Amino acid sequence: MDNILSVLVFFPAIAGLLGFVVDKESARAYGITVAAIEFFLSLWLWFSFDMSNAGMQFVELIPLIPDMGISYYLGADGISLFIILMTTLMTLIGMASMGETKNIKNMIVTLLFLEMTMVGVFVALDAILFYLFWELSLVPMLYIIGAWGGPKRIYASIKFFLYTFTGSLVMLVGMLFVAYIYHNLTGVWSFAITDWYALVLPVDYQLWLFAAFFVGFAIKVPMFPFHTWIPYAHGQAPTIGSVILAAVLLKMGTYGFIRFSLPMFPDASVMAITPIAVLSLIMIIYTAMIAYAQKDMKQVIAYSSVSHMGIIMLGLFAMNAEGLSGSVFQMLSHGIVSGALFMLVGMIYERRHTKLLSEFGGLAAVMPKFAIIFGVMLMASVGLPLTFGFVGEFLVLLGFYKVSPMMTILAGTSIILGAVYMLRVMKLAFFGPLDNEENKKLKDLNTRETWSLIPLVAIVIWLGVYPKPVLAPIDRSVKALLTFMDEKAITKEAKDMIRVAKSTKEAK
Amino acid sequence: MLEPINVSLESLNLITLAPMLIAIAGGLIILIIDLLKDSLDKSLYVMLTVLILFIDFGAVLGLNVNERGFFDVMLIDGISIISQLMIIGGSMIFIPLALTSKRFHEYSYPEFFALFLFMVAGFQFMVATDNLILIFVGIETASLALYTLIALHNRSNSYEAAVKYFTMGALAAAFFAMGSAVVYALTGSIELYKVSEVLATRMNETGLMIAIFGSSVLLLVAFAFKLSLFPFHTWAPDVYEGASAPLAGYMSVVPKIAAFVVSIRIFGMYIDLGVEWVRWTILILAVLTMTLANIMALVQDDVKRMLAYSSISHAGFIMAALALDTTEGNTAIFLYYALFMFTNLGAFAMLWISRHKKRRFNQRFDHPYEKFAGFIHIMPIGAVIMGLFMLSLAGVPPFSVFWGKIYVMQAAVNAGYIWLAIVMGINSAISAYYYLKLIVYMFLKEPVKDVDTVYYNISKPLMAIIGFATLATVAAIFYVQPLVSYFYYMISASGY
User: Fold this and answer.
1) Of A15, A33, A232, A415, which shows the fewest CB atoms inside 10 Å?
2) Nearest to A135 among B396, B413, B426 (CB)
3) Any chain A CB within 8 A of the CB of B480?
4) Is the minimum CB–CB distance between A454 and chain B shorter than 8 Å?
5) Please, where are the H alpha helices in A294-404?
6) What confidence tens digit (pLDDT) does each residue in B164-184 have?
7) The predicted structure's pLDDT at residue A504
8) How far is residue B449's CA from residue B447's CA, in Å, rounded to a whole number?
């Protein structure tokens, strides 16, 4: 199937439309089936993917508005392939484990539309198409947070929408300007990213455009000064909302850096290493400290997820294969691990209707399965060797060590700080005396919950022990990207930075 | 003794007048039918009006580009054809909104439909000429008809709106007349193409700049009133509030298209002559209009007033495109309005179907936000459609207004005004807040009261119109390409 990407994008959307007809009682089964089919379709994509090819595959190109240079242009490479897989997997598992019962049909339909936009962002190769899916993804998420969230849900959802919307409009101006430059040089309008890659821009243009795209992506990631929307979004969102938000929506930002900023503005990217690294370090350390101070279990996970996004950002700007591959790999592990942690918190919340750590204690005695799975995910989140989280984090730190050993040491504290706040959660919630009467009656995970988490545990351990099947294609595409950036860079510093990184890799 | 004037009929090229004559004849036919037989139902008149507009549309479509007629007063160039098509198209969507399930005062008068057709003819005269006097005649014909249409709504605040609009319109007319007089004094002509020729030869004369300044400022003020630009916008929200919802939607689109065409002709000429500060004045007015109207819209309690301010803000967007004075900029004006038309008329039509005879939710307003609280539970499809319109107005892709916005912003970037594109982006972000507010009320809040009567006014024709507007809003991505290429071709053919 050459047009599998189109099928992947539009299957959930059509299923969502048809979902309006499905009866309320059967909506959940319908949603899970559709999400499962979508997941199998993405597995098909993986198996028919040519692993030795580092470029774009399954490319589809249909001109939509030729006068404005906008076309329907899809493609996937090793970087986007696994993010798509993670998206479909997390949607499936999120839906399967979902405990919501209120307005379940609306929730299923919304989630299916959300899945379309998420897959669309990761396969779009036309900037306007990318922007289209990017903006459209805000609408279902707004509804999920606003309709099923906590008491301050409306404030949280509007804040989420406006922050991201504002940032992306600045990005849109950047896109229009790139298209304008392209038109000036070639006389043709084009928003195709692959066409834009051919542009060699002067450094001052690169800096301005980098800044414009940075605003859009950084708010989504969220980078340090722009992160204030996320505690509200996570705090108020229902479990499924937090799962999708943490697992997929935040990755759109980091994916945007890989797809746009790095290859299009290599010199500006190299110049931005230090400022971005500083912001990332603040993210890593500062949010980890905030996470330690939280009383609410979900907020701990929320801040830890922001903290780990800092590691991803650091890896992106290491400008070498280890850092970049590690960063992409960390995106996957962050998606699965923080998604799973949010699910676990959601499960305990459904039982006790509180997320306050002070309410818990000694849960391991009454909920052993829950405690074990929580423990595994927690270890993966901290980055314990032989778990999913370790590989990415290690590679990122290894990669960034070549840029700045000092900063890497500071970033390495994330493992220590992570262990500190995560083990605090472990201690307060699962160990200690079981002194709260209400906790004694708690039931352990039921079959549905257990079986929706077990695949994630399996993936966490499998890819922690043997990451090669995923890491190899990522590595290939990342190296192609770096070679391309090296050829394209015009300043000597940028060339040195990228080349040094490459030569050390070859020397090994 | 005066020589007799010999005019051959061919040289008059009367076909250029045909579209307006069709509309006027249609209006007269409606009046005659009313004389012959009383108490005919409004549906007859609505359908007759649509049919007359259809013939009108056909007549415009059949015109050749770049022709003059009727003593060279009529000018049929590309922009006059596309603007006439848009005016007629907008009118055709508007008029079936009279077919509500409940009776409303104004539609029981056949004169309403006759006046409506005269108004359309007036707009057509405005856009199909470059003679300042005929433009003036067109403006006044259309405006006087429009004032009456507003007042026919038969409510105390409709009278207020009509009188307010009339006063402001009279002021604008006076400014226009004075501006034209100065132009005539400068050049001895009222034909814009001759004016620009004469002015081009006199640009270097000392002391002339002050006169040019005077003429352009007077004309600019006149059109700022018509286009509701800051600081001449204050009438707009009150007038929209007083007028019936469909008429308010109509006013936010069609008269503005006509006024924009005249503005392109007049101010485009000034900018082409190298009078840079006309461009800067327009740019500053445009930026102030979009920003301040947005901020005002944030604090409104009534959806209709919010939409009024939002359409002022959209007019500011488009005014900025006018200042660019590039073919792309002018294409952007028409593309934006073509796309905005469906969405905005659709949004006002949604207000229309929820209009009650009495105010149930609030003493002061017809459509407070609370009215739409929990709309999703009462009327799920209606809520989704209204939500789509709001997202489209906010500029969320792939809905229609987004393509207009991106084209305007692209035109701004191409003309070298990147700051303008950024200002537009920021304004879109601000505007998202008040559109979202309605979405939040509709989807995320619980209904207040009177749940069963929200879609009070619905009827099959209204559903069809709203369905059409929704389709046009959602499927914009598929027809933007033919629209852009047609507009671009027509506009570049007429040399703008």
Assistant:
1) A33
2) B396
3) yes
4) no
5) 297-316, 321-352, 363-366, 368-382, 388-401
6) 999 999 999 999 999 999 999
7) 47
8) 6
